[in-house]
Amino acid sequence: MSRAMRRAVPLYAVAILCGCTKEARELGPATPQTPPIGNEDPRIPTYQDNFYQVSQGGRYFAWYGCSGCHAEGKDAVLNLADSEWRHGFGFANVYGAIAARHGRLAYGKRIPVEQMWQITAYARDLSSHYPEKRRRVALDQQAEPVGGTWHGPQ
Amino acid sequence: MRRGAALAAFLPLAACGGIQSPLSPVGDQAVALHSLLMLSIMICGIVYALVIGGLGWSLRRRRAEPPPDTDARALDHSLWIAAGVILAGLIALTVGSFIADRALFAARGRDALAVRVTGHQYWWRIEYRDPASGRWIETANELHLPQGRTARVALGSADVIHSFWVPNVAGKIDMVPGRRNLVDLTPRRLGWFRGQCSEYCGAQHAHMALDVKVDPPAVFDAWLTAQAQPAAAARDAVAAHGAAVFAGACAACHAVRGSGAGGRAGPDLTHFASRHSIAAGTLSMTRGNLQGWIAQPQAIKPGTMMPAVALAPADADAVARYLVTLR
Question: What CATH code is assigned to B237-323?
Fold first, then answer.
């Protein structure tokens, strides 16, 4: 190992600590209790920039059956990872599309508000990853307890 | 003051019994482990007493000067005796451990009841195989066992590592994602016992308890037959309204067999009101507690996967009234 590399090791070690806040989570009565107010709502970074909230959104994405229609390789609106957003990419736009543009599924009424925030963060996060990572996430989601045929991990 | 200190010294002994203690074994496996524990304490206690006694003795006689040749011979003898005692203690512990292992894996399981327990953050999914039909009957957070019969429990996890431990009945076994571990439970005494997740699994690890009930075999069979039945239909208008609200707001995650609600993410609620507690031992089973839990689960068990569902007060009340009829 060269001298420069040896010097860099402690710096890398310290740099890793910067990631410690990326999964920070607040416990307590669920917040928020209302949909986002515009795309600049100050609550958005709490969800969009937090790995825990995004990954929870992924779990609910599976629990509510979203992955039954939305998947990699599907066309148009069914492909959430193609960076094309018919109704806008803003947080409130995507939230509104999930809540109000699914007809009889009425997610806006059926899914609690905080979970809607998490699912929105997950959907917006998808296009920022490589296909390999999205595929790995999709495989993980197949193990989520969903539907009558799920019989546990055993 | 001195009397008080003596009394206080006995207080920890109160923890030696009760419904969640390995020192009060009620199952064959717990008895084997308890015997091994007692053997270890006895041998280690003897060794400890000998070491402390020897230390005290040497401190008392340090001034005396015995003849040098006698001292060397005595030292030689003492070393042989000490080595013999240590060896005997180690052999006894090894044999004791071997016997306990054999007892834990004894072939009691020929007629074993097949049970699956899956750990979730922060609750237990429990499934029994119906011996008649071969299908699995699902419940949650309350494990019923027949007295005197072995239940072979297959343990797994759906998310992170948990650990299954009902100390009065058997030893602790981890529940690891992607892996199936087996534990046999052969309870001998009737009653309620308490298990607890014993591998830190997240914010609500402490509120991941398991109620365990040991029943006479006939009572257990009747209980299992009742659990296999679908839920009873709502009996009055309020409960019927609650069932309708439940179907819209709760059914994505919870199942009530016979009602159309088939979610698997949360606990099966088909016979919810027949259970001892709510939210894995967090609250006792009362309608008031249930209403509080439905209204604001994150205030009662912060970090639970159960969200606060925005229901109108009358709807939330109807759901609670519906759920308490599911016996």
Answer: 2.60.40.420
Instruction: Evaluate whether B109-215 and B237-323 have a shared fold.
Output: yes
Domain extent listing, chain B: 109-215, 237-323
Lowest mean pLDDT among A13-27, A87-101, B178-192: A13-27
CB B277 within 8 A of CB B285: yes
Closest partner residue to A152 among B158, B296, B310, by Cβ? Answer: B158
Closest CA to A53 of A29, A84, A27, A92: A27
Interchain contact, A25 vs B177, CB within 8 Å: no
Say what the ipTM of the complex is.
0.79
Vertex A7: Cα angle to A5 and A8 (nearest 5): 65
> CA B143 to CA B59: how far, in whole Å?
57
**Which residues of A touch chain B, with CB atoms under 8 Å apart?**
25, 27-30, 33, 63-65, 109-115, 143-148, 150-154
CATH architecture of B109-215: Sandwich (2.60)
CB contacts, 8 Å: B302 with chain A: 27-29
B118 contacts in A (CB within 8 Å)?
Answer: 152-154
Which chain B residues touch A143 with a CB distance below 8 Å?
Answer: 158
pLDDT in tens, B250-295: 998 999 999 888 888 999 999 999 999 999 999 999 999 999 999 9
B interface mutation test: which of A31, A113, A154 has the most B CBs within 10 A? A154
Q: Is B92 left (phi over 0), alpha (psi -120 to 50) or beta?
A: alpha
